[in-house]
Specification:
Layout: H1 4-8, H2 52-56, H3 59-68, E1 71-74, E2 79-82, H4 85-93, E3 98-99, H5 119-130, H6 135-154, E4 165-168, E5 171-175, H7 176-181, H8 184-193, H9 200-213, H10 220-243, E6 247-249, E7 255-258, H11 260-265, E8 268-269, E9 272-273, H12 276-306, H13 309-317, H14 322-332, E10 339-343, E11 347-349, E12 352-354, E13 359-362, H15 364-367, E14 398-399, E15 402-403, H16 418-436, E16 440-441, E17 467-471
Parallel strand pairs: 2-13
Antiparallel strand pairs: 1-2, 3-10, 4-5, 5-17, 6-7, 8-9, 10-13, 11-12, 14-15, 16-17
Helix pairs in contact: 6-8, 6-16, 8-12, 9-10, 10-12, 12-14, 12-16
Bound molecules: protoporphyrin IX containing FE.
Protoporphyrin IX containing FE binds next to helix 12 and helix 16.
């Protein structure tokens, strides 16, 4: 499990103390048989959650949970799983009854962030920069998103050895992760926040170190150091921006508004300016929340489209379909599996009583594959009639037989970066497609299934590498 989920806890808690269960890799869509109860219901052995099989092929197990244990008490990992779309939606809206992670869980690496807040305190913090990532402010960022995508593609032709862009007669072979998706979202966030272009290299290093530092392992110290460096750097920027704000520019070079750091520098709460610590934590969270997630969304989307060539051709012929492709990707293979919550009071749900203060995993992966909402949920189909693909709403959408997916959550903590990540993925892909021509999967370099010739399932973690071939004049 990756990204935001790692900020706080993992959905499947890996534990080397747990005696392993020897689970074979099952055909996609089929669950390993863990036995049956007297009434015939399939049983779940919680050791499955630590297995390779589950990481590769989680959906058949989520189906068992949804159908037979919509609230599952995992006594091995000491937590609960809520897996139906409707239940998860209700819990996300009840910010008081199901609060977000306990304070301090981001283990110092990100600082005191809004993820750990609830209620008014949360709303106030969230609005500080959330307003700069939506509406007109967001429209103003689109030229920069397009330019940054173009610059990354131009860099493929710069002199120097690159093991992710390989030219041979008539064909160029590209690994889209290293060539584009890994760094593109960080570059966008870096620019939108207002980091100078020269700081990009450091910024990418701090980001990577902070992300691996969240694992709570040997890398934790590196993560803390990176955060300290980021904070030192941001302090200097904040001082400079308090004296002289900096701006973002449109394609014609005209200023379209201040960058986010300049905006935060002039923001007051109860008459006081935000402290550097507050600004840094906001930045750390925006960076942490927006990098790995959007990277995964871009690679998953391209991977799904290229393995469904008729849908790829449809998008290539009708530019407006990118929006549906993005949302269907997030429904089918979201980069974030779910969110942890803690219940403030004892609750009973589907006959299971959950003591106050328990860890409850809201499994967004499962909500997005709930056949009560999405027909044939395992099929990637950007034309599906039951998915809402319009403008994302904090309230979610459930009308006329269509529902929004759960990849950005819903309610008070709905991802404030949802709109910008949408633009990054869609605008970035438009620029990519215009430059790539007719890309196709490079089947020699991808780990294709030897019998079916298909790509392996995306599973719990997003695609990391995606090798493409394009024609070269
Ligand atoms: C495809 C890309 C993305 C996905 C799938 C995603 C997913 C999510 C989800 C599920 C949450 C909800 C957390 C909860 O309910 O507790 C969240 C929160 C958050 N996301 Fe994103 N995110 C993405 C991109 C971004 C981007 C680009 C940014 C920043 C520019 C960002 C910043 C944040 C922040 C700051 C929060 C915390 C919100 C709060 O607690 O109020 N995310 N994200």
């Amino acid at each position: 499990m990756s990204t935001l989920q790692d900020f706080v806890t993992t959905l499947t808690i890996p534990s080397d103390q747990v005696q392993s269960l020897d689970i074979p890799l099952m055909p996609e869509g089929e669950a390993y048989d863990m036995g049956h109860a007297e009434d015939g219901a399939p049983l779940i052995d919680p050791r499955i959650f630590d297995s390779r099989e589950f990481a590769r092929n989680p959906y058949p197990y989520y189906r068992i949970l949804r159908d037979h244990y919509p609230v599952y008490h995992d006594q091995l990992h000491n937590c609960y799983y809520v897996t139906r779309y409707e239940d998860i939606t209700a819990c996300y809206f009840d910010d008081e009854g199901f609060n977000t992670i306990p304070k301090g869980s981001s283990s110092g690496v990100l600082g005191n962030t809004q993820l750990e807040l609830s209620g008014i305190e949360h709303r106030r913090r969230r609005n500080l920069y959330g307003q700069h990532l939506v509406g007109r402010a967001l429209d103003n960022r689109i030229p920069a998103i397009r330019r940054l995508a173009g610059e990354m593609i131009d860099a493929w032709d710069e002199p120097g050895e690159k093991n992710y862009v390989i030219d041979s007669p008539g064909v160029r072979t590209i690994e889209l992760g290293r060539a584009f998706a890994n760094e593109f979202p960080i570059r966008v966030v870096c620019e939108v926040l207002g980091f100078p272009a020269q700081a990009r290299g450091d910024f990418y290093y701090w980001y990577n170190s902070m992300m691996s530092g969240l694992g709570g392992s040997k890398t934790h110290r590196k993560g803390l150091e990176a955060r300290q460096h980021l904070e030192d750097y941001v302090s200097g920027l904040v001082e400079a921006r308090r004296r002289e704000p900096t701006y973002l520019y449109d394609e014609a070079g005209d200023p379209v508004g201040k960058d986010i750091i300049s905006k935060l520098c002039e923001t007051r709460i109860d008459g006081d300016f935000l402290s550097t610590e507050e600004i840094t934590s906001n930045i750390a969270l925006v960076v942490g929340g927006g990098g790995e997630t959007t990277r995964g969304a871009i690679l998953n989307m391209w991977s799904l489209l290229l393995s469904h060539p008729e849908q790829f051709d449809a998008v290539a012929n009708a530019d407006s379909l990118w929006d549906a492709a993005f949302h269907e990707t997030l429904r089918h293979s979201t980069p974030i599996g779910g969110q942890p919550r803690h219940n403030t009071y004892e609750v009973t749900l589907h006959g299971v009583t959950i003591p106050a203060g328990s860890l409850i995993n809201m499994v967004d992966f499962s909500a997005n594959h709930d056949e009560r909402v999405f027909a044939e949920p395992e099929q990637f189909n950007l034309f599906r009639a039951d998915l809402y693909t319009g403008k994302l709403l904090r309230s979610g959408y459930s009308k006329d037989g269509r529902c929004s997916h759960m990849a950005f959550g819903v309610g008070p903590h709905l991802c404030p970066g949802a709109w910008i990540s949408h633009q990054e993925a869609v605008e970035g892909s438009r620029v990519l497609l215009a430059r790539l021509g007719k890309p196709r999967l490079n089947r020699e370099r991808m780990p294709m299934h030897p019998h079916t010739g298909e790509l392996p399932p995306i599973g719990l973690t997003s695609r990391r590498d995606l090798w493409l071939d394009v024609d070269r004049p």
